[in-house]
Amino acid sequence: MRSCRNISALVSQGMDKKLSLRERFAVRMHLMMCTRCRNFQSQSRFIRKAARRYVDALQSRLDNKS
Q1: What gap in Å lies between CA 14 and CA 22, rounded to an integer?
Q2: Could you identify which of 7, 9, 19, 42 might form a hypothetical disulfide with 30, taking C-beta atoms 3.0 to 4.6 angstroms apart as the criterion?
Q3: What is the pTM of this model?
Q4: What is the pLDDT along the chain (66 residues), one digit of tens a residue?
Q5: What CA–CA distance (Å, rounded) separates 59 from 65?
Q6: DSSP code per residue over 1-65
Q7: Neighbours of 60 (CB within 10 A)
């Protein structure tokens, strides 16, 4: 079984690129057993979504000023 450190790195990488089948399987299996890594994945998704919304709102404000 992979370590939490390795899985959290894969979770982060998986947000930017498609993981291999083996990596996706390892992440899924680990997340089924590890609450901390599930929380990390959930929080990472939330932060990414919030940052995207913030950038969109800033862009919208800039577009409306022009």
Answers
A1: 12
A2: 7
A3: 0.85
A4: 799 999 999 999 999 999 999 999 999 999 999 999 999 999 999 999 999 999 999 999 888 876
A5: 10
A6: ---HHHHHHHHHHHTTSPPPHHHHHHHHHHHHH-HHHHHHHHHHHHHHHHHHHHHHHHHHHHHHH
A7: 10
Half-sphere exposure of 61 (CA within 13 A, CB side): 6
Q: Are 39 and 23 in contact (CB under 8 A)?
A: no
> Does residue 30 contact residue 11 with C-beta atoms inside 8 Å?
no
Between CA 23 and CA 17 the distance in angstroms is 12
Return d(Cα 34, Cα 4) in angstroms, integer. 8
